[in-house]
Amino acid sequence: MGDVVTIRDVARLAQVSVATVSRALNGQQNVASTVRERVLDAARELKYVPHHAARSLSSRRTRTIGVVLPDLHGEFFSELMRGIDVVAREHDLHLLVSSYHGHPDEQGTALRAMRGRVDGLLVLSPFVDSQALASELGQSQPAVLINSHLTGVGLGTLRIDNYGGARAMVAHLVERGFRRIAFVTGPKDNFDADERLRGYTDALSDLLPDAQPIVLQGAFDESSGHAAGHAILAMQPRPDAVFAANDMTALGVLFAFHQAGLRVPEDIAVAGFDDIPLARYVHPSLTTISVDIAELGGRALRTLLAGRENPTPPTQDATLIAPHLVARESTQRNADRPPGENLK
């Protein structure tokens, strides 16, 4: 077959005509769904790159970097893109951005659409099951993964130390005298969310061995935080602190407590994770685990560019980026209140 996979190779494997392959790969509607899937499976198996784009890729003249994200909504992703864009401008590069709306299947579609159009990929893939991602990343396409469970592929993985950050937050709350600490999780099957939950439960077990974990389901957004806040209001006894898996969730919790007339932190404390720009401007200002999100994006692109110039075999370990705790008003007890007083 040779080193370069052609459209004819895809047609042969899928047992269809070259014209059908072209229509299927270009998203035209006049292709039966079963045939389209067969073509896409063949293209994926062969790691086919369109010929016109392959010429650009081999000469590295596209001057374009692909960024594939689970979503574009929210301050985390806007900050991440801001950091990537700063480094892209420094190197006179363009960005081609795609969102797969949190669906693993659409992630594969987005990655395939990038092939041959970009000189390298930045991929944020939070799924715990990352085998589908591994199958999509070909050796011909330089890639750096962000906050992915997957390691040992591409040019490396940059990952926030979610576990260590969550442990640090629980330690902070315990030090402030809080004893009934609830946790609002992120989405199911999300690697970041799982690591933050693991950090919470392990720290609680170590620091408050007699305490029972209080875990509520969240989704990394305001609405799930708002719902969790109302569920916490109905608890008897009520938690005296809430640690939300990210700041957007924490803002939803804060709003629920405000609606109910609860004072934060006098009646109940609230903390988050990420340190989005809005965290310091809400009232009360939000205690959180600070991740330099823009720097994470910029560092990912710098890693990609350095790897393209000096490619090295992929490592099995991710590079962990250590976040740090930022204590603000939402967990600050009054100076004249002894720790633990509101536990009675």
TrEMBL record:
Entry annotated with the keyword rRNA-binding: no
Top-rank taxon: Bacteria
Keywords: DNA-binding, Repressor, Transcription, Transcription regulation
Membrane-crossing residue ranges in chain numbering: none
GO molecular function: DNA-binding transcription factor activity; transcription cis-regulatory region binding
Pfam families: LacI, Peripla_BP_3
This protein's record includes keyword Chloroplast: no
InterPro entries: HTH_LacI, LacI/GalR-like_sensor, Lambda_DNA-bd_dom_sf, Peripla_BP_I
SUPFAM superfamilies from the UniProt entry: lambda repressor-like DNA-binding domains (SSF47413), Periplasmic binding protein-like I (SSF53822)
Protein known as: Transcriptional regulator, LacI family
Provenance organism: Lysobacter dokdonensis DS-58
